[in-house]
User: Fold these one by one.
Assistant:
Number 1:
Amino acid sequence: MIKNVVIAAAMATAGLAATPALAQGGARVGLELGVVDDDFLGTEDATYGVTAGYDFDLGNLVAGPVASYTATFENDGDIRDVTVGGRIGAKVGAASLFYGTIAYTNLDADGASSIDGVKYGLGLEHDFGGFYGAVETRYADYELGVETYQTVIAAGVKF
């Protein structure tokens, strides 16, 4: 069910009509909802989080730092993931950005222990003149052979 919502949101974001040309640089802060699947426990959980970053407009490219905090809606424990890294993207049309990310990530389950890893992502972001919407898919490779796959939709404000 959640995957269907994420796929529908991705299609809606990708199919948006072009808006007037907008600058792609500056700070941004947003909220995200998604689903994460881990191969370690074989579970699928709904996630929520906050994300922030700063984009440097480099002509046809945009690059900058990103950070996020993600947690699950899981009832039997507190699982959180903190990510710090960067992204680079190519402008698509007047107000969209297709981008890739790479980041350090730290996964913590119930505050008892944490594992480090690397997270990779691909996304599409659309600028609505001070606001943005995005869909992103992520793969994380942690210590101890733990892997996760996550898809999120995000909305936020640009400054």
Number 2:
Amino acid sequence: MGKRGCKGQSFAILSKVIKMEDKDTYFVAVKLFLEDDGKLFIFKDKWGDWDLPGGRIKKDEFNAPLEEVVARKVKEELGEAVSYTLGKPEVLMRHERVEDDTGETARIFAVGYSAKYESGEVVLGEHHTEMKWVDKNEFKPEDYFTGGWLKGVKEWLGVR
């Protein structure tokens, strides 16, 4: 029985390895649906795409709580002075983008958190050029977002 068990385990492991070729690779990110008095914060990156605050998890943040990743991204993108109350994860998003440095398509899986803006002046980081607070009731996300971000924003607006 010991030998058959080993052969069965080897086959199962080999089967899993072979199937890995069919698996996809994603970056993992956190995004904020940052609200203030009925308005949603959006901003444009230096490549011309509209976005939500947040971004990819770094390699050294593997074991970090996602709330700490959110805090790092808020400081990088909105400045040290911005304070907010982080809500719950509400939307899961999958988005594709072409990376400027490599020209390759990157797939991103993102967890979208609700958040309430509390105070502080927004000072855009080096990767963003424009910001808006848009009225959630009049906002047309398709005029700003594409792909998975568009689907996620629409889903989040439907939750409201």
